[in-house]
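[recover] target loaded
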């Protein structure tokens, strides 16, 4: 069972702009979920809504402005739970590196092997393609900034 997905893009936007795009509910809906319910602050749980696909709970676990943002979630688009600390999750991490001429964005999602067997392989396969698609949407958004 593969355990980690990594995607990397380089955008011409600065790290502050990219960080805002991944942490500000008004910005993240331009490339990732269709709606965000709740706060994207450390320790807060929010709901991502994917129109036509369902809702997913996420819990922000760390944030270092302009460098790092991480949350836990149950991968997939139809996994809403009241308390994410009571279920197995994966960890989604965004690392930003200022290159002077732009920003390198590295996304990592890890922990698939710790998920229940019936969902681990399916979640990995779906997210492998899903993150490629979503990161291309982020790249496109950042080229418009």
């Amino acid at each position: 069972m593969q355990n980690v997905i990594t995607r990397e893009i380089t955008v011409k936007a600065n790290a502050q702009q990219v960080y805002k795009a991944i942490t500000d509910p008004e910005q993240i809906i331009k490339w990732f979920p269709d709606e965000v319910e709740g706060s994207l602050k450390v320790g807060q749980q929010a709901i991502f809504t994917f129109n036509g696909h369902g809702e997913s709970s996420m819990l922000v676990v760390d944030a270092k402005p302009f460098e790092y943002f991480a949350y836990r979630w149950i991968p997939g688009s139809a996994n809403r739970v009241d308390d994410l600390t009571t279920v197995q999750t994966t960890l989604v991490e965004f690392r930003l590196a200022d290159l002077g001429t732009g920003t390198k964005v590295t996304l990592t999602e890890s922990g698939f092997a710790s998920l229940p067997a019936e969902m681990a392989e399916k979640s990995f396969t779906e997210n492998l393609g899903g993150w490629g698609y979503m990161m291309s949407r982020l790249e496109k958004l950042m080229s418009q900034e």
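[recover] notes: Residues 4-144 form a domain with the Alpha-D-Glucose-1,6-Bisphosphate; Chain A, domain 4 fold (CATH 3.30.530.20).
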